[in-house]
Amino acid sequence: MPLLVALSLARLTDRRPRLLRLVQGSALVLAVGAAAVALAPDVWGVAVGTVVVGVGHLLFTITGQAAIARYSRDDDLDLGFGWFTASYSVGQALGPLIGGALVGAGSVEAAGRLADIDLALWAGVGLALLALPALLVPLGALPTARRSPGTENQVAARAPVGQILGVRGVGSAMFASMALLATMDIVIAFLPVVGERAGVSPVVVGWLLAVRGAAGFVSRVMLPFLSRRLSRRSLLTTSVLGAGLSLSVAPVLIRDPLLAGLLLAVGGFFLGLGQPLTMTMISTRVPIRWRSQALAVRLMGNRIGQVAFPLLAGLVVAPLGPAGAIWLTCAVLVVSGTEQLLRRDGP
């Protein structure tokens, strides 16, 4: 459901001279959705609340990306998108910890457990509302220096998906983004199964995944430093190839926690680089008036990949085992990296 409105939300942000109300509204929608789930009397209420949460998350992601693309100079996009995605990583790490602590601290009875889940949801409501003061910083209209110069003023504000994908380099960056995110999901889902088959403790596997996540956060923080020394094209090529090669070996060596941890740290570092890089590369490829829409199309592609790749992974798990799912996405990363190496359309 949220994906169906992604492009419409992006077009709305492109039409708005100011984004403050949309950013604030996204926090409110998240809070309302979490409250609706907590108060839901039945499964239909939970479904409706979950859709509202999804729309709120999507609205915040789109408006946040749009704000960075709108107010940052092209040279500063890596800084903005790097910290934006790094902040997401922190939230995705702290959220389960806070929720798990609240849920795990209560009764083990079914009724008590449901009450604890409601408490965790209300904590989410509170955190979303606490974000509002930080969102009171005024965001002005599009600065004159960032307005579309020359012929870009004649570019239509509404861009069809096919036209966005037809811009040179955009489809390639979107494919890399989809492959990177799908690989991250597959590793998180299948590495515990690989570890179980190999007799590795779940605690060890948990630490290995934590190392991967921490390395991804570090790479996103370091992105501005790296992009000043290497071209974005070189960084993205290194990202997809480095992640694909290192993560493909990790399942084979999972019985050795040190080697597996090193490979996952390397793979996690490269996985973390790719997402903000593709945001920047897509933003700088399309006309300024299309940036929000292009980033929304990228987001839609990511979500499609998150659905399609697990289905494809299921086809290789039977003959190759759970490691086959990881190898499949790593092979796609290598294909993406090879395409980046062979493509000749600028940096």
TrEMBL record:
Question: Start and end of every Major facilitator superfamily (MFS) profile domain?
Answer: 1-347
Record localization: Cell membrane
Listed InterPro entries: MFS, MFS_dom, MFS_trans_sf, Sugar_transport-like
Cite a single GO MF annotation.
transmembrane transporter activity
The UniProt transmembrane annotation reads: 20-40, 46-69, 81-107, 119-142, 173-194, 200-223, 235-254, 260-286, 307-335
Q: Which UniProt keywords apply?
A: Membrane, Transmembrane, Transmembrane helix
Gene3D superfamilies (UniProt xref) = MFS general substrate transporter like domains
Q: What's in the GO CC field?
A: plasma membrane
Pfam families reported for this sequence: MFS_1 (PF07690)
The keyword Kinase is assigned to this record: no
Q: Does the keyword section mention DNA damage? A: no
Q: How does it sit in the membrane?
A: Multi-pass membrane protein
Q: What is this protein called?
A: Predicted arabinose efflux permease, MFS family
Q: Which organism is it from?
A: Ornithinimicrobium cerasi
